[in-house]
Design goal:
The structure is a single chain. It is built from 16 helices and 18 strands. By secondary structure, the chain is an alpha+beta fold. Helix 1 runs antiparallel to helix 2, helix 7 packs across helix 8 and helix 8 crosses helix 16. The protein is elongated. The two termini are 48 Å apart.
Length: 570
């Protein structure tokens, strides 16, 4: 651009010497000034941030890789940070506007969230690190060396950079680092979604959770709350002398819950194994062994549907407490969860959007005590009928079937008494619950591991905690009579033979363990993911699982080149 500019003036000077022509000179000068302004515009465009230009994402990535190859070092091995952004914000939050502490020099690192230019000698960045953000106010005056423009032209949104400089506050009141040196630590090779629109597409958010966390600040808050919930449960139990343990994830039998298992294969022993659906039986064996109070927080795997409240692998907490019954466990549940809600929400009442953030919220109140509703008695009350109590009989099954049909309640085959009772409970009780409510006294036919009720034949000492129509907890006084336990297992086996693929199998090893003596015990299980959904105000379980199960995508037509590093969606 400089060559035409100089050529015009040289031609003008030559014309002047040969024959003065004011109009010609004036015209050439005007052309030169236009060229000068045009060159300035081109220079400004070249200096503009790349992300603000309309660039094809594939071309952006290829251009970025090509430009980085010219640098002597792109991926340094280490950057010795001596402070975090959060620490600096806390320590220097009261600095006056316009003041700079030249003696307070720190080395930090983080990801570039935004980049702004003010003239040729000033660059502004928003740097994010571990959920905290601080401004970088980079000037040529404080930069070490004479390569200010070259260094800062490298950086783009999404890059991870290292910064060394003093701290202060801008005249506009923004806490800032005033760098003396900056270094690229790891480049981002892809264009990021714009700050103002964020990342909205759910498929992309769930498949690329790293990008979701990078762009959407509220996502991090959800998983911080999840960690706080798990920590609260763990601390609550440990302070009450419970021992945390780990039990097998694979077994030849799937016991502890009525669910369809995932099946895998152990090559060394040529053995078919099941991924666990619940840790219950192992934990009760530990109580038999003398561990009176035991709990486990871990993953379970159930080969069932995927919807807004179900994921094939999920997190639960189960605990077992010797010499306790289900009444004590209900009191513990109220105490644990009401105190947890108060700690995390600063109130027992909070708003929840059951149909998503665009719909109207409901108010949920965790203030204790919570209602306790007898399942069969409430179904009879709501339906205006009296049900037979021998639920194992064909007469009772037919009465339940007729009641379901009369209210047009769908129940897939096999229409066993247990499955019909579950559907009737959902229709008449569960769907009408908003605030925490205990559904108690389930029939024995639905609860093969629960102990019989002391005063109500055919029922058990079991409860489920429901909030907003969803189950959070399931607990009962444990069945510790080996003869009765074997009979319940055999009933389950007959249901499985009849087509109920979620029924449990006979676990003779567990029955043998019971013969050594299980003390009176209360057992309790909580779905961690659903509790996080409630307290984090999320209506989709995928929002509270970092990497939820997703249907595989078709393979990309062209694999990214090796220079890009690890690649590909799962």
């Amino acid at each position: 651009l400089r060559a035409p500019y100089l050529a015009c003036w040289m031609l003008g000077a030559l014309c002047w010497r040969l024959k003065p022509r004011p109009l010609l000179v004036s015209g050439l000068g005007y052309a030169a000034r236009r060229l000068h302004r045009t060159s300035a515009l081109y220079r400004a465009a070249a200096a503009a941030p790349v992300e603000k230009q309309e660039v094809d994402p594939t071309a952006y990535r290829e251009n970025r890789i090509r430009s980085l190859k010219e640098l002597p070092e792109v991926y340094p091995h280490v950057w010795p940070v001596d402070a975090t952004v959060a620490e600096l914000i806390k320590r220097f939050g009261d600095l006056p506007d316009g003041e700079r502490d030249e003696a307070a020099v720190f080395t930090i690192a983080g990801r570039v969230k935004s980049k702004r230019t003010s003239g040729a000698k000033l660059r502004f960045y928003d740097l994010v690190s571990d959920g905290s953000q601080i401004q970088l106010m980079c000037s040529q005056q404080t930069h070490e060396g004479d390569d200010f423009a070259e260094v800062h032209d490298i950086f783009q949104r999404g890059d991870i950079i290292g910064v060394r400089g003093c701290i202060g506050r801008s005249k506009r009141g923004e806490l800032s680092i005033f760098p003396s040196s900056v270094k690229l630590l790891s480049p981002c090779l892809h264009m990021l979604p714009s700050d103002y629109s964020g990342l909205k597409d759910q498929e992309t958010r769930y498949r690329k959770r790293y990008l979701d966390l990078m762009i959407n600040e509220d996502v991090r808050k959800t998983f911080v709350m999840r960690s706080q919930i798990v920590s609260f449960i763990r601390d609550y139990l440990i302070t009450r002398n419970f021992l945390e343990v780990e039990t097998p994830m694979m077994n030849t039998l799937h016991g502890g819950a009525s669910a369809r298992p995932f099946i895998t294969h152990l090559n060394e022993l040529d053995l078919k194994l099941n991924m666990r659906v619940a840790p219950e039986l192992y934990l009760k064996m530990l109580v038999i062994g003398g561990v009176d109070r035991v709990f486990e927080i871990g993953r379970n795997f159930r080969n069932e549907g995927i919807d807004l409240t179900h994921n094939p692998e999920f997190t639960s907490c189960e605990f077992y407490m010797a010499y306790a019954d289900y009444n004590q466990l209900m009191d513990m549940t109220e105490d644990m969860l009401s105190n947890m809600v108060m700690k995390l929400k600063c109130s027992h009442q909070f708003e929840y959007h059951p149909d998503g953030p665009e719909k109207d919220p409901i108010t949920v109140d965790f203030s204790a005590p919570w209602p306790r509703i007898s399942m069969v008695e409430e179904i009879e009350k709501q339906a205006g009928v009296t049900l037979p109590r021998d639920f194992a009989s064909e007469e009772a099954r037919q009465a339940l079937d007729d009641l379901a049909k009369s209210h047009k309640i769908d129940c897939p085959t096999p229409r066993t008494a247990a499955r019909l009772l579950d559907k009737l409970c959902g229709h008449f009780i569960e769907d009408r619950i908003v605030n925490p409510t205990f559904i108690v006294e389930h029939p024995q036919i639905m609860s093969p591991l629960a102990k019989w009720h002391r005063t109500k034949p055919g029922l058990t000492e079991r409860f489920e905690l429901f909030v907003n129509g969803r189950e959070l907890c399931n607990a009962y006084t444990e069945l510790n009579d080996p003869e009765r336990q074997l009979a319940c297992f055999q009933d389950q086996a007959r249901a499985k033979d009849a087509g109920d693929d979620e029924a449990q199998v006979v676990d003779y090893g567990y029955v043998t363990a019971l013969e050594y003596g299980l003390p009176p015990t209360g057992g309790w299980g909580l779905g961690v993911d659903r509790l996080v959904m409630l307290l984090a105000d999320k209506h989709n379980i995928k929002e509270v699982i970092l990497f939820p199960m997703m249907k595989p995508q078709a393979a990309p037509a062209k694999e990214p080149s090796a220079s890009a590093g690890p690649s590909g969606d799962r």
